[in-house]
């Protein structure tokens, strides 16, 4: 034996060891773990998981890991690490709160020499991952809720209009809490309609199809972002958008695609916008009555960059406040 060589290492009985708490996202396909997670699992002396149906287990075992189905208490886990051993715990969906609370109590007592504790995320949620949760919830509601299971596109249409108006109101009021909630309500309408559409016997489509369609549209209509075109001003961007949209729709009139069922001021402003963008010279129709006067006001507002609907709503809110003030004054004087 070489007297200069180091003696072989042996487990240090005084070493409290190490606990690796491995968390994974159910929104990422099981088996897709980070490289540090695979390294930690293969290096561990034991791998434990309380949930025998955990979606990661088949993939861990396929990778040659002996995963034990066990749910040790905090004291038992500390004892299992004694002597410098490493125990990896594959966390369930709840994140093992009972175990972590128990370990925190032991550490706080000061009577136990605690193993090193490492929280190791094995997979991460990507932006937009919570939409997957919404899809799963909607699937279950559609299947099990007596009301939701009977809804149709036609029956839900009025709610889409209501939610859109409530979203606009939250924006105009500047209420951030309401804005977040109303955006969720609008998103629900999209997911709900997409879920119903999956059941169509002849032309089904899903939320993925809806998202795929708008992704393709956005890429095609932004050649200055995804292609070789150049746009340095908002006006040039709008020009790209309108040109590509015209190519897609192959419309014969600038009025095509404008929904006639929208509020009158918005309809008039949209028509005026299309006329102005197309460079057409179209005199306003002559006629008697307030309708023609409102038409002229809406066209004038659009030309000045003012949304006539928003302007009228702002004035209406001021009128509402005046009404409430008058009601309050009346109550005070009537006592």
| Gap from first CA to last CA | 108 Å
Order of SSEs, N→C? EHEHEHEHEHHHHHHHHH
Which spans have pLDDT < 50 for at least 5 consecutive residues? 1-9
Q: Work out the helicity level.
A: 40-55%
Which term fits the overall shape? Answer: elongated
The gyration radius over C-alpha positions equals: 32 Å
- Enumerate the strands of the largest sheet in spatial order, edge to edge or round the barrel: 3-2-4-1-5
Give a quick precis of the structure:
With 335 residues, the protein is α/β, with parallel strands linked by helices. It is built from 13 helices and 5 strands. It is elongated.
Topology of helices and strands:
Blueprint lengths: L17 E6 L11 H9 L2 E4 L7 H6 L4 E3 L4 H8 L4 E5 L6 H13 L6 E6 L8 H15 L8 H21 L2 H22 L9 H14 L2 H4 L7 H16 L14 H15 L11 H14 L4 H26 L2
Parallel strand pairs: 1-4, 1-5, 2-3, 2-4
Please, could you describe this protein's structure?
Helices cover 55% and strands 7% of the residues. It has 335 residues and is an alpha/beta fold. A five-stranded parallel sheet has the order 3-2-4-1-5, sandwiched between helices. The longest helix is centred in the last third of the chain and has 26 residues, at 308-333. It starts with 17 loop residues before the first strand and ends with a helix. The model is unreliable at 1-9 (pLDDT under 50).
